[in-house]
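Fold this sequence, please.
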Amino acid sequence: MKLLSTLAGASLLLPGLAFAQVADISQVWINPGFYSLHFDRNKGLEDANPGIGIEWPIDKTFSATAGRFRNSDREYSNYIGVYVMPFEFHGVKLGAVVGASTAIRTTRMAAGSPP
């Protein structure tokens, strides 16, 4: 099952890599993961969320992203999404991200307690 999950995560990156060969490769970003700060420090959630992702621009407003990271429950999640940044203010682009991620399954959620 773990191999299947790893293959599924890797398959999210393949369309990006294929597109990157057609697009200008110098515009592609490789993302190493990120950090989450959890305000409820008593839940035992992991703040460091390393992973690998790819981001590539479609045009000046839209960028696509996909990747895999170790989530706050110490399991792996896959994601895919689109950055929409229609505004720019003094060189800083502003917008939103629309996307989807595999579910984070926790014993807290399974037991019916609030996440």
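Strands lie at 29-35, 48-57, 62-70, 76-89, 92-101. The mean pLDDT is 78.
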